[in-house]
Design a protein that fits this description.
Blueprint (H helix, E strand, L loop, with lengths): L1 H28 L11 E8 L3 E7 L6 E6 L2 E7 L8 E7 L7 E11 L2 E12 L5 E4 L3 H4 L3 H17 L20 E2 L6 E4 L2 E3 L5 E4 L5 E3 L4 E9 L3 E7 L4 E8 L1 E2 L6 E2 L4 E4 L10 E8 L2 E3 L2 H4 L28
Parallel strand pairs: 1-7, 8-10
Antiparallel strand pairs: 2-5, 3-4, 3-6, 4-5, 6-7, 9-12, 10-11, 12-20, 13-19, 14-15, 14-18, 15-16, 16-20, 17-19, 20-21
The chain binds zinc ion.
């Protein structure tokens, strides 16, 4: 009997050992190294292409670092300071105008000393109905020759390099300013057909205004780059910190220098029609952690000086998020 029992125990132990070995193998394959399993979903949010979602991570912990990843893009969080809001961290999640509709994970890592835990939010990217825009432009503004193409590529590289290092501190304040009070064309994200050829979608908003009209910085920041590019014309790139940039193109004049700190509402240039433009207007663009978002979504963010409650989406079961409605 004793022998039989021992044999049984040995077999059981062996089976457990094999099962543990298999589990370890499965988890190591799925990249489960030193992190918590990403099986519990902590909430679900939803927003349209080109919108900004506010993601709240409620936590009482002090001295923590909160960082998220969505579709391979980093989402940086900052402490909640709005009056009447629960303690925690807030992140602005940009949905790129060309993110493919579907549901994706937003994985958030909360690190305190050596301890780390993660939250997983499901984010639904909803299709936005963008307009189709037909433009008639001089042939040389659409079909670049070899020299023009080389210049355009070098300019793209220059922008990429300048915007590669995100300021790790939040420079913006809850006071977004519309850079020009002009005629909004509502063509953010529009599919562009130039001289009958499909081109990249319009990655900003155009505001019609006479040449020489003042252009204001939408918020506090640092002038990261000033350019005179083939398509953008004279332009300014402002770095507002934590992966958030605003762009101002086709200016007739640039009134700021690279590295200069600017305040919300400060005049940084004048409206013009430089670069590829059919008439005087401001092209206003915003990039949030690499995502091209509708700049007007900024003005709808609940980051006013006064406290404003954040409305959770119907199926969110923890945290809160709102999609700023596109104008
Ligand atoms: Zn434009």
């Amino acid at each position: 009997m004793t022998q039989y029992g021992q044999f049984n125990m040995f077999t059981l132990g062996g089976v457990i050992g094999i099962v543990l070995f298999l589990l370890a193998a499965i988890f190591s394959i799925s990249g489960f190294s030193g992190q918590q399993p990403a099986i519990a979903f902590d909430g679900k949010y939803s927003g349209k292409q080109g919108q900004i979602l506010i993601v709240k991570v409620p936590t009482d912990e002090e001295a923590v670092r909160v960082q998220g990843t969505f579709l391979g893009r980093a989402v940086l969080f900052f402490p909640e300071t709005r009056a009447g809001e629960t303690k925690g961290f807030v992140g602005l999640l940009g949905i790129d105008l060309q993110d493919v509709p579907g549901t994706y994970d937003l994985t958030i890592q909360i690190t305190q000393m050596e301890h780390s835990r993660s939250l997983v939010y499901r984010v639904e990217v909803v299709k936005e109905k963008f307009r189709i825009e037909h433009l008639k432009l001089p042939k040389d503004k659409v079909d670049l020759d070899a020299q023009g193409l080389a210049r355009w590529k070098a300019e793209q590289e220059q922008v990429k390099e300048a915007l590669a290092a995100d300021s790790q501190s939040k420079l913006w304040e809850p006071k977004f300013v519309e850079p020009v009070n002009g005629k909004r064309t509502g063509i953010f994200g529009s599919v562009r057909i130039m001289n009958g050829q499909a081109r990249n979608p319009h990655n900003g908003e155009d505001i019609g205004a006479p040449t020489g009209t003042d252009v204001a910085a939408t918020n506090d920041g640092v002038v990261r780059l000033t350019v005179n590019h083939i398509f953008s014309g004279k332009g300014v790139f402002l770095d507002h910190g934590l992966g958030f940039y605003s762009m101002y193109f086709h200016l007739s004049e640039v009134l700021v220098k690279e590295g200069e700190a600017v305040k919300a509402g400060q005049i940084i240039g004048k409206v013009g029609a430089t670069g590829r433009a059919t008439g005087p207007h401001l092209h206003w663009g915003v990039k949030l952690n690499g995502a091209r978002v509708n700049p007007y979504a900024l003005l709808d963010l609940p980051f006013k000086a006064e406290a404003k409650s954040v409305i959770p989406t119907p199926d969110s079961d923890s945290g809160s998020a709102v999609g700023a409605p596109a104008p």
